[in-house]
Amino acid sequence: MRAAPAGEYDRRIVLLTRERGKITAFARGARRPGSLLVAATVPFAFGTFRVYEGRSAYTCVSAEISNYFEGLKTDFEGACYGAYFMEFADYYARENLDAADMLNLLYVSLRMLERKEVPYAQVRYAFEVRLMVLGGEFPVDVTQDESLKVAARQAFYHMITAPVGRLFSFQVSGEVMEEIAARQDRIRRKYVDRSFHSLEILETMVETISDFT
Q1: Angstrom distance (rounded) from CA 189 to CA 200
Q2: pLDDT in tens, the chain (213 residues)
Q3: Are residues 79 and 167 located together in one domain of the fold?
Q4: HSE-up of residue 131 (Cα within 13 Å, Cβ side)
Q5: Do residue 137 and residue 202 come from a single domain?
Q6: What's the number of domains the chain is made of?
Q7: 142 and 111, same structural domain?
Q8: 24, 102, 165, 205 - which has most CB atoms within 10 Å?
Q9: Kindly report the CA angle at 8 between 6 and 13, in degrees rounded to 5?
Q10: Nearest in space to 138 (alpha carbons), one of 202, 183, 172
Q11: Same domain, yes or no, for 151 and 178?
């Protein structure tokens, strides 16, 4: 989910793992030219990481990457959404807790961004809602809020309950999507006690794109 230089040649990475949740690991020599860990220790890399546990952190010794999400790396808008997904998942992830559902959600959401079959905003809000549900902080009674249009309430119910493989399959009008976005923005600000640098960049980019369309 994150990577940063450490020392002269190493890299400090934060991994979301199925078995142990969020862990910090050091990839020794990952910044040396020719290191086998160079490509594996960058954001969006999904695969099997081999690590061993130390006193305060793990050491990553090898990795087999099955998906680099190259499509996002060549799509600035998609990469911005992906970076936000990583930061939001980082907020909810915890150490030493099973994170299989969260990892699956993050993977499927990045795949949807890469495939471009669903509007980015729809992917974003479905991801936010489901991640907050997994984190135990989403107010599910929003589905009964009669101040929302019926279609918006139905969409929220779908985002809360649908299997993750069908999470993004709902269809709503632009007007209803705007209503969903406005309500979810308020919910996120109420329950999430921090701001996200990647979200600030994303929202500035979306506003700029809107100004030119």
Answers
A1: 13
A2: 999 999 999 999 999 999 999 999 999 999 999 999 998 999 899 999 999 998 888 999 999 999 999 999 889 999 999 999 999 999 999 998 999 999 999 999 999 999 999 999 999 999 999 999 999 999 999 999 999 999 999 999 999 999 999 999 999 999 999 999 999 999 999 999 999 999 999 999 988 876 665
A3: yes
A4: 30
A5: yes
A6: 2
A7: yes
A8: 102
A9: 25
A10: 183
A11: yes
Structural contact between residues 15 and 49, judged by C-beta atoms closer than 8 angstroms: yes
Q: How far apart are CA 61 and CA 52, in angstroms?
A: 8
Do residues 32 and 26 lie in contact, with contact meaning Cβ atoms separated by under 8 Å? Answer: no
Contact call for residues 169 and 141 (beta carbons, < 8 A):
no
CA–CA separation, 69 vs 106, rounded Å?
12
CA neighbours within 13 Å on the CB side: how many for 31?
A: 12
The whole domain housing 24 covers 2-67
CATH number reported for the structural domain that contains residue 38 in this entry: 2.40.50.140
Instruction: Give residue for tokens 């139905």.
Output: 154
The enclosing domain of 81 has a CATH number of 1.20.1440
- Residue 88 CB coordination number (10 Å): 23
